[in-house]
Amino acid sequence: MEEINNIEVVPCTESDYLKPLRVHYNQNGTKKSWDFMRTHDSVSVLIFNTTSHCFVLVKQFRPAVYMCEWERTKTQPPQSAEKIEEGAAEAAAASESQEGQSASEGESSSQWPPATAGITYELCAGLVDKPDLSLEEIARQEVLEECGYDVPASKLKRITSYRSGVGVTGSKQTMFYAEVSDDNCVSAGGGEPREGELIEVVKVPLHEAMTFAYDERIPKTMGVIFSFIWFHNNMSPKYKISTNV
Question: How many whole angstroms separate alpha carbon 207 and alpha carbon 213?
Answer without folding.
Answer: 11
